[in-house]
Design brief:
With 200 residues, the protein is mainly alpha-helical. It has a single domain, classed as Tetratricopeptide repeat domain (Serine Threonine Protein Phosphatase 5, Tetratricopeptide repeat). The protein is 68% helix and 0% strand. The longest helix is centred in the N-terminal third of the chain and has 16 residues. The protein is globular. The N and C termini lie far apart (38 Å).
Length: 200
């Protein structure tokens, strides 16, 4: 079962109970105005992606991924969010073609949102359309080449297509962007064997 990030039960479970969405308190008396702006500024998407690439442990990486997804989805309109939720409901109910239609509608509303291309790719993969998924991931990664979730979906998609060298290349991006990826050593060995065969 595919889960569109940000709307499945795992995504909700991953949300930390405190800390990431707390706003900074008022600046101390005597703080200059330009310092106040710096203190209140939230980290950018790029800052968080850089932190993820240097995360020391799985828990820290998962917290960063939740924050990154929030930033990616912050500009989605309410109607787009409803379509995203409906697409997830369709995937949960084993209706991947309906999920693809929901994502088509979402992309008509907000075609510049990278996360929508990635999520339609996920729906297309569930609908056994890996070529369509690769096309959507190309657009998503053109918008944000450091989207580790898009690279993971691309690796899975290339496996489904039987292109093991392309899957290996996508996996290398995953490891570079999130070195705490679970079961990384096992997956690296498996993909290396599929892509290049048994070492001599």
């Amino acid at each position: 079962m595919a889960t569109l990030l940000g709307h499945g039960p795992q995504a909700r479970a991953a949300l930390p109970s405190h800390g990431v969405d707390q706003h900074a308190g008022p600046a101390a008396a005597g703080t200059h105005a330009h310092d106040m702006g710096k203190a209140d500024a939230e980290p950018s998407l790029g800052d968080l992606e850089t932190e993820l690439a240097h995360a020391a442990n799985v828990r820290g990486a998962r917290d960063l991924l939740v924050r990154i997804e929030r930033i990616r989805q912050k500009d989605l309109a309410p109607t787009t969010n409803l379509l995203l939720k409906r697409a997830q409901d369709d995937l949960d109910a084993q209706r991947p073609l309906d999920a693809v239609q929901d994502m088509d509608d979402a992309l008509l509303l907000q075609p510049d949102e990278e996360v929508l291309w990635r999520n339609r790719a996920q729906a297309r993969l569930a609908a056994a359309n890996p070529d369509g998924a690769v096309a959507d991931l190309g657009v998503a990664l053109h918008h944000d080449g450091r989207d580790v979730t898009a690279w993971k979906i691309l690796e899975e998609t290339e496996e489904q297509r039987g292109d093991w060298q392309a899957a290996w290349k996508a996996w290398q991006h995953v490891l570079q962007l999130d070195p705490t990826t679970p079961d990384a050593d096992h997956e690296t060995q498996r993909l290396r064997l599929k892509a290049f065969g048994q070492p001599t």
